[in-house]
Design brief:
Blueprint lengths: L12 H5 L10 E4 L5 H13 L4 E6 L10 H17 L2 E5 L22 E7 L22 E11 L5 E7 L9 E8 L17 H19 L9 E5 L18 E4 L4 H9 L8 H4 L9 H28 L3 E5 L6 H7 L14 E5 L5 H13 L6 E6 L7 H14 L3 E4 L2 E2 L25 H14 L3 E2 L3 E4 L2 H6 L4 H24 L4 E4 L1 H5 L10 E3 L2 E3 L1 E5 L3 E2 L1 H12 L3 E5 L5 E2 L2 E2 L2 H8 L1 E3 L3 H7 L6 E7 L5 H4 L11 E8 L2 E8 L12 E8 L2 E6 L6 E3 L3 E3 L2 E8 L4 E8 L37 E2 L5 E4 L3 E5 L1 E6 L5 E5 H12 L22 E11 L3 E9 L5 E4 L2 E2 L7 E2 L1 E12 L2 E11 L8 E5 L2 E5 L2 E5 L22 E9 L2 E6 L3 E2 L2 E6 L2 E6 L5 E7 L2 E10 L41 E2 L4 E5 L4
Helix pairs in contact: 2-3, 4-7, 10-11, 15-16
């Protein structure tokens, strides 16, 4: 069991306030270097320090210890033992990098287990050479092929399929003749010079289980189900399905297939796919029959689900652990069809269904699909791989907001992406930020983890209350997976309707579940249950959203539901196809039930009887009246979603914001008027502080009314006890009932009204303190190869590419094989020399020079060779320091010669010391340390590349009373406030106000610690595309107008003067 306490009669106060490890996140722990057991064991403690409940051992780019080898498992077992001692969980991950299935290429060394695909090719087609390799299972071409059939294909003048013939032999006249052949994947460096696994073949997946899961069970099986709760599978997929651009194109199409596909297809549908293959790719005139294409898509999805998700899920159940993880391409109808068919059916046997949420996107469909499966299959929770690809600048307020809305949709198990073992080489660009010790804020992350752990203690109890089911329209999308010219508009229409309906329901505060037709077809109908049963759930109303086709099994269930008085609502139009063949069966059912226009207003009106929660929002202080004068106040919330759960006789309600404020610095507070169907006594569970407090409620016509004040990063967890407030003893919850109807803003229920206060600007800091040394980034240099002529200054990662191209080495920006695969590689045979001209406005007796593997380099400073003597490290142990004597005022010359081979990492370098740094164009200049740091961007105050934290210290003269502080404009992870040397806690959420407690009349010192990040020292400082949201490795290597040699630095610091005010007891 994942959550042991969820079946206790009530949520204990002690558990809520101090949740155990099971309720806490467990980040990906990137094993990305040569493993050192002692260092790994030492790092285990950081997870506990950060408030995590454990870690996922995740092999990533840079692993230099044999995957699944003896030394590897020595490290795994040592970390698992240390986790046990610390009360943490060790979670497993099933692959070297991703996607899951090849076991780092071990499985696919045997070609019978490699992925294969069908190629539909015009006879005589001249194939082009492959481009660069991608980190995915897209088809990799080879000459390992097997002929399947020839086809004569005749199109009409409009491009519709007029006729076709499957041929045994190639005719003499090759005009309009196509060949189908099976092709086995070629080698690719991403799979360590092997290939991806055949996820349509249960034998291949069984081999993956034997190599990976059985080995883990052999080594750690005694702790399965106790200390080891789950194993994570990442982005399994099929060969991506291609399509033509126009029907007249004469190009190859690649699509998912395997050796016995036609045999199992024939067994399922009674005819040969190969004999009808052109119908998969071309549109038939008349558009009355899409069955061949539909059956093909269905069969791919079924075979993938059975071979991968079902087989591995069953193995996990038999061995006492949960299968978790996520599919590839979960978001859209298009992306799902491309890579796997659909997301819900393959997760049926997942113990903890999961999703991946990258770039801080709002993929409502992705979560709704996984959560629906979890609810229907009665799973304990839902996993999200969260925060990936968000960059160094992603701060605490966004960590909370991103997690909140996902929790409201049903996520209970957070897997933050990611923390690194090392920053060596390419690892430092492996989708930062590092949620771990490489970030200066890591020791404060418990603020985030405590909040979500407390939330999970409530939201893992009982079951979700959901009255509406929605038939998932993915199978209608499959019908139109044809050439773009003839099908794209219909697919876009389905896609847009899919996304609109999700948002209309969620933001209309009507919770719902998706119903997968594939899963529904496997359900045994239970006529004794009320509603529309789907697994453990039952729905009062079922929506059919502009589908083109429904399965006959789905129509049978809908007809039976309607016959017994159930409510079926067709939206837009009734489907005109049954099992992808034209039929009036759905139309007849729609005539007997309800058919509504595809309109937000009409749909929400029709679902009003299913409503359990409604919220009106009234913007308050901070709102620009010129923006609001044309907007009606008190409308239904447009940026809130909720989850309602039944827990015995009680209920839990969680409400969250979803989207970021337009301007994170300038926000407003809101008054929520919450209506809940039924009569309840509400208790506020403050997840940020652990406090529990009963709150006031009013009642009206069978509804409970609650008023709440919130910020734009706010969320609310309420326990709802049956009965009126005046009927429930306050002592029942062990807390004093509040007499106010303000349930809080993170400041104990107080919401200062700034308009009525005498606010003053906080004086400029009288002093500041850097919590680590400042640095100068050395990322551009003159260079030469093997003692040749000096070349003009260039950015160092680009120099690395130039040298690799000249030598025929693979570029590090491509999909390289892991270092562990190439243990016998020869020593470097070449030398790369870099020359940096370091301009300084000051002289210093010494500075520190920082680079990777300086022990292998020759370092010359101002003409003198510097013997390497280790002086510690900068940020990561791989970036070593050595002392350089005598920084001179003027120009200093640094020359570094690096032995160069295939495995050499040529990386940016740094100078560190007691100096300032200024960025002017493409030049970094050493300056004196600033005498003062004022409010404003400190990168413009001679701390251009500083990546650490900073203390601002100032003083204020106050009257006696309660001192409040507001800091609304800042760039950094979060702030800690101290008054007269006493810590007062963190500040990072809107409205950015904090009570510092009662003060006496006189002078008081305020220290504000702003926690920085590494965006200007390790970030993509040459990326000129500010709109880019994909913070992947190649953002450091942009090209064209997306590249800038001039530094593109990010704001850092307290950007405007904070304000303060005093509140006296008499107001």
């Amino acid at each position: 069991m994942f959550y042991e306490e969820k079946n206790e009669k009530d949520l204990r106060k002690e558990l809520f306030q101090n949740p155990g490890s099971a309720y806490r996140g467990a980040p990906f722990w990137a094993w990305n270097t040569k493993l050192n057991k002692d260092a790994l064991v030492a790092q285990v403690h950081q997870f506990k320090e950060m408030g995590f409940g454990g870690f996922h051992i995740h092999c990533r780019v840079g692993l230099d210890t044999e995957y699944l080898g003896e030394e590897f498992f020595d490290c795994v077992k040592a970390c698992e033992e240390e986790a046990k001692k610390e009360g943490l969980f060790c979670y497993l991950y099933d692959e070297d990098r991703w996607p899951s299935g090849s076991a780092g290429g071990i499985v696919t060394r045997d070609s019978q287990y490699r992925t294969r695909f069908l190629v539909f090719s015009p006879v005589g087609y001249v194939e082009e050479e492959e481009g660069s390799y991608m980190a995915a299972a897209k088809a990799v071409r080879s000459q390992n092929r097997k002929h399947l059939a020839y086809y004569f294909v005749q199109l009409d003048p409009e491009g519709y399929l007029e006729s076709y013939e499957c041929l045994d032999r190639l005719p003499e006249d090759k005009e309009n003749v196509w060949e189908a052949f099976l092709e086995v994947s070629g080698d690719t460096p991403w799979f360590n010079n092997q290939a991806y696994v055949n996820t349509l073949d249960p034998r291949a997946v069984r081999k993956f289980l034997d190599v990976t899961h059985e080995r883990y069970y052999q080594e750690l099986g005694a702790d399965f189900g106790t200390e080891i709760k789950s194993i994570f599978t990442d982005e399994p997929q099929t060969t991506h399905k291609g399509m033509l651009t126009t029907p007249f194109d004469k190009v190859q199409i690649l699509t998912a297939y395997t050796d016995d596909f036609d045999t199992t297809f024939r067994g399922k549908y009674g005819y040969s796919l190969l004999e009808h293959l052109p119908e998969v790719f071309y549109e038939k005139a008349g558009g009355d029959d899409y069955q061949v294409r539909y059956h093909y898509q269905t069969h791919v999805m079924e075979r993938f689900s059975e071979a991968f998700g079902d087989q591995i899920g069953e193995w996990c159940k038999e061995h006492g652990i949960h299968l978790t993880g996520h599919m590839l391409n979960e978001w859209t109808l298009h992306s799902q069809t491309l890579a796997i068919g659909e997301c819900m059916r393959p997760m049926k046997e997942f113990g903890i269904p999961g999703v991946d949420m990258l770039c801080d996107r709002r993929e409502y469909s992705t979560l709704k699909q996984a959560v629906s499966v979890a609810r229907q299959e009665n799973r304990e929770g839902v996993m999200c791989e969260i925060y990936g690809v968000t960059g160094w600048g992603f701060d605490f307020r966004n960590h909370k907001l991103a997690g909140d809305w996902q929790a409201a949709l049903g996520v209970t198990f957070r897997v933050p992406h990611l923390t690194w073992v090392s920053m060596e080489g390419e690892a430092k660009r492996d989708y930062p930020a590092c949620i771990g010790r490489h970030s200066p804020w890591y020791q404060r992350y418990g603020l985030i983890e405590d909040h979500f752990a407390r939330l999970n203690t409530a939201l893992t109890r009982g079951h979700a209350l959901v009255r509406v089911g929605v038939i998932h329209p993915i199978e209608s999308y499959w019908m139109y997976w044809g050439n773009k010219e003839q099908t794209a508009l219909r697919r876009q229409e389905l896609e847009e309707g899919f996304e609109r309906l999700i948002q209309w329901l969620l933001f209309g505060l009507i919770d719902f579940d998706f119903i997968s037709e594939a899963l529904l077809s496997e359900e045994e109908e239970d006529v004794t249950r009320e509603g529309f049963p789907m697994g453990e759930m039952s729905y009062q109303t079922v929506l059919v959203p502009e589908c083109s086709t429904l399965r006959s099994s789905t129509l049978k269930r809908l007809e039976a539901f309607a016959e017994k008085g159930g409510r079926v609502i067709f939206l837009g139009a009734a489907p005109e196809f049954e099992d992808a063949k034209r039929s009036d069966r759905a139309g007849k059912l729609a005539a007997k039930t309800e058919l509504l226009p595809f309109s937000r207003a009409r749909i929400l009106e029709a679902l009003e009887r299913e409503r359990d929660v409604d919220i009106d929002v009234f913007p308050m202080d901070g709102v620009d009246p010129t923006r609001m004068k044309h907007k009606e106040e008190g409308n239904r919330a447009s940026n809130l979603i909720y989850q309602l759960r039944q827990d015995g006789e009680n209920r839990w309600l969680f409400i969250s914001h979803v989207n970021k404020p337009v301007n994170e610095h300038i926000t407003w507070t809101e008054r929520w008027k919450i209506r809940i169907r039924g009569v309840f006594s509400p208790v506020w569970y403050d997840t940020m502080t652990g406090k529990i407090q009963s709150v006031h409620a009013d009642y009206q016509e069978g509804w409970t009314l609650i008023e709440h004040f919130a910020s734009q990063h706010g969320s609310l967890l309420l326990k709802l006890l049956p009965g009126r407030v005046d009927e429930i003893p306050a002592e029942q919850e062990g807390s004093k009932r509040s007499g106010t109807n303000q349930t809080g803003t993170g400041e104990g229920g107080r919401l200062p009204n700034l308009e009525s206060k005498a606010c003053r600007l906080l004086p400029e800091p009288k002093s500041y303190h850097l919590l680590e040394e400042n640095c100068l980034l050395l990322d551009q240099a003159e260079y030469r190869f093997d003692g040749g002529a000096w070349q003009e200054k260039e950015e160092i990662l680009r120099i690395d590419n130039l040298f690799r191209e000249a030598l025929g080495y693979p570029l590090r920006m491509e999909a390289l094989a892991q270092p562990w695969v190439n243990q016998d590689e020869e020593k470097p045979q070449h030398v790369l020399t870099l020359r940096c001209q370091v301009r300084s406005e000051i002289s210093l007796p010494e500075v520190s020079f920082c680079m990777e593997h300086p022990e292998n380099a020759k370092i010359v400073w101002n003409g003198a060779t510097i013997p390497y003597q280790d002086a510690g490290y900068y940020v990561d142990e791989s970036i070593r320091k050595c002392r350089l004597p005598g920084l001179e005022k003027g120009v200093n010359e640094l020359v570094v010669s690096i032995p160069f081979g295939r495995k050499t990492n040529v990386e940016w370098m740094y100078l560190c010391g007691a100096f300032g740094s200024r960025a002017t164009g493409r030049e970094g200049i050493i300056t004196p340390l600033p005498e003062r740091i004022l409010y404003g961007d400190f990168t413009r105050q001679d701390l251009a590349f500083y990546g650490g934290s900073i203390d601002y210290v100032t003083e204020v003269e106050t009257d006696e009373g309660e001192l409040f502080l507001e800091i609304s404009h800042y760039r950094g992870a979060l702030m800690d406030i101290a008054l007269d040397g006493e810590e007062k806690g963190a500040l990072f959420l809107a409205p950015y106000r904090k009570s510092l407690g009662h003060v006496s009349r006189g002078t008081h010192e305020i220290r504000i610690r702003l926690y920085g990040n590494r965006i200007n020292s390790f970030g993509a400082v040459h990326n000129a595309n500010a709109a880019e949201t994909w913070y992947g490795p190649n953002l450091w290597r942009t090209e064209g107008n997306k590249w800038s040699y001039e530094y593109q630095l990010s704001e850092m610091g307290i950007l405007t003067a904070p304000v303060w005010w005093i509140e006296k007891e008499n107001g």
